[in-house]
Amino acid sequence: MATLLVRGGRVIDPAQDIDRIADLRIVDGRIAGVGPAEAGAHRADETIDAAGMIVCPGLVDMHVHLREPGREEDETIASGTRAALAGGFTSVACIPNTEPPIDTQAAVEFIHQKAVRADTCNVFVVACVSRNREGKELADIGQLVEAGAVAFSDDGAPVSDAELMRRALEYCAMFGKPILAHEEVLELSRGGVMNEGLVSLLLGLGGMPAAAEEVMIGRDTALAVSTGGRLHVMHVSTAGGVALVRAAKARGVRVTAEACPHHFTLTDEALRTFDANCKMSPPLRTAADVEAIIAGLADGTIDCIATDHAPHAREKKMLELDRAPFGITGLETAVGLAVTRLVVPGHVGWPRLVEAMSTLPARILGLDRGTLRPGSPADVTIIDPDRTWTVDVAASHSKSVNCPFHGWSLTGRAVATIVAGRVKHRLAGF
Amino acid sequence: MRSATTPSSPASLDPAGAVPSSWSHRHLLDLERLSGDEIRLLLDTAARFKEATGGCRRKLAVLTGRTIVNLFFENSTRTKTSFALAARRLGADVVDFSASGSSLSKGESFIDTAKNLEAMGIDAVVVRHSTPGTPHLLAQHLGVGVINAGDGPHEHPTQGLLDIFSIRERLGDLAGVTVGLVGDIAHSRTARSNIHGLLKLGARVIVCGPPTLVSPRWRELGVEVSHDLDAIVPVCDVLNLLRIQFERQNTRPFPSVREYAHLYAMTRERMQRARPGLLILAPGPINRGVEVTAEVADCPQSLILDQVANGLAVRMAVLWLVCGPRGAEEGAAASGHEGRQR
Fold first, then answer.
1. I need a surface site. Which of A51, A54, B18, B50 has the fewest CB within 10 A?
2. Separation CA B135–CA B26 (nearest Å)
3. Is the per-residue pLDDT at A69 higher than 80?
4. What is the mean predicted confidence (pLDDT) over A2-21?
């Protein structure tokens, strides 16, 4: 019987409404219980002193591009999940825009096998909505569910055909699986590399208007109503998008939403450097949008924080802005950005942050994670809420360094990541 | 009427001497981040060069031994020729490098191409590219001066400078002068450079065209926005007629060329409602019959050929300021404005 004791930390588990200084006991890879902090109360094989730390259910990132198979020069399942562990994530959901796309049982099995071999964090598979991610006909969703797919998405691109989206929502409802929707009307954002606004006007760069996101969220929430399907809006980036999700929830629509750390941190002003590491889709928006995202996270309109970790090899980003691909890495900076931008200024309390980064993403994907309930798999993240550190892409575990936060000083960092009772990552000095 | 003024010419502007210490930039990337004084220095320097070369006809030996590369990733005839001539008038060697037929078509990145050129020992790169910010990226990666000769719809600083130079030659100080920019503002790098330069020199700027090409957001910069050419013609001292950039448009922003010309072409009839002495500018190539009729393009108030001639003077000034001999504080004052923000 292997036992691990995490002693004296501030244990937060929103699913059980726990927020107190306590010991966390792990036995044989499962949570044994949260008890009062007592010196020497329990004997354990291994003890971690977590005084001054946040001890919470392992963080879940429901939006990660691991790139394998097909683009191993950008990231592999092994390297991406190592970055996840370093960032405090015990589970990631990988998005199927790989080459080939994940639209068969064999492809799902491949991911699972690679993840087992990597022996890092848990990898849950999001499979394609449409066959070959072409947006024309449904993928074999039932068989993909049998293989273990937890959700469906054509992310990287929207499901442009409204009828296909309707069918996908209807069909997935049978399995209780959500559609993770990249909300973008491509005709409106065509040729765009950044938010359409004053900055794009001044820089002469092609704009992606907020309406491109908002029109699609409007369409899909209407389809969610008419089908009863489960819609999850990925990477909400606009104030209008937040308002649409809020209104849909108020009407009782089965909709959830996520936001990315860069969308509550940076604005389109960052593009003034013409740095391709500030190019992602949806793009960085305005200060008013950032404010709305933060408000949406604070009031729960936006359920969770997901990184949209999108690694690209250095040479692909060292191109003219219109030729460089969209996307930035995010796994290793998410906790630091969330604490620095949301908790330190007082927008969001710790229990809500844990809910947004663990409880709710696990619940949206239907995982038996995101809680410290006795008997649950012992996925635990220990965070130093006060640790100030400097982002250094050279020290990144990801294969790619396309990160606009290099050199930034952040507060808050995962110091230990425990997966199924095993300490898989421990920051030097902790 | 304003009288043409002689540009101020402090001794430090002597073309044979060192670049004045008030010019601290290693590159010329855009006009947005230059100050009014820096733009005046550029214009004054251009005037000095124009005079010293007898109207840009004679050669000076102020850049002898320097090598300038014309790195054009986009087709150009007049701008490239103008830069090449300007460089030769100052005694510099000029090498042309065009994207077609080069290693770029073999998949080499533009940064690698530029680094290769740099390794051959050049002093400045004049770059044109269809993507905004490309000169700025080169400036971050290269140790030599970078001059923007047009980066997509972003800026074309020497075109903006030569337009302003041509106006200043006729009207003197720009303060209080009303300049109308008409046409495809959305896709025009010339418009952006003119807007920044004119605002910094105190001019009143009106942009005019259909809402699909003229964003109301320009008001946030202090620019007036109009969709009615007939309304602005009587209040303008200068009209700059910009070409429709069909090649940069996703979808046609107006129903037909015929309808566009009906609403926005500068015609003889519209000239009759203008102030006497209204100046007409057009950065070539012009589409006669679209932005401007032939009668107007060739009328006495048209500065279209002045613009071409003044382009040489402006480009001499820019080349000299970017790669001319520096004073004692060389390098120390190099501006960091090209650098990353954080």
1. A51
2. 12
3. yes
4. 96
Q: Is the dihedral of CA A81, A82, A83, A84 positive or negative?
A: positive
pLDDT of B262-317, one tens digit each? 999 999 999 999 999 999 999 877 888 888 888 888 888 999 888 888 999 999 99
Query: Is B287 an interface residue toward A (CB < 8 Å)?
Result: no
Prediction pTM value: 0.92
Packed helices A210-227 and A239-250: angle between N→C axes, nearest 10 degrees: 20
Residue extents of the structural domains in chain A? 3-55+378-392+406-426, 57-364
Q: What is the pLDDT of residue B16?
A: 59
Q: How far apart are CA A203 and CA A23, in angstroms?
A: 54
Q: Are A354 and A412 in contact (CB under 8 A)?
A: no
To the nearest whole Å, the CA of B133 is away from the closest chain A CA by 6
Q: Considering only CB atoms, which chain B residues are within 8 Å of A408?
A: 342
Q: Which two tokens stand for residue B133?
A: 């910010």
Question: What domains are there in chain B, each with its CATH number?
Answer: 20-155+311-323 (3.40.50.1370), 157-307 (3.40.50.1370)
Question: Tens digits of per-residue pLDDT, B15-39?
Answer: 558 899 899 999 999 999 999 999 9
Structure tokens at A16: 């059980």
Can you tell me which residue has the tokens 């949406």? A296
Provide the 3-class DSSP secondary structure of residue A340. Answer: helix
The residue ranges of DSSP E strands in A243-347, in sequence order, are 255-259, 304-305
Give the ipTM of the model, two decimals please: 0.89
Residues of A with catalytic function: 308
B151 shares contact with chain A (CB less than 8 Å): yes
B9 has a pLDDT exceeding 60 = no
Six-digit token pair at A244?
């649409």
The CATH code that applies to domain A57-364 is 3.20.20.140
Q: What is the amino acid identity at position A256?
A: T
DSSP B282-319: -PSSP-BTTTB-HHHHTSTTB-HHHHHHHHHHHHHHHH
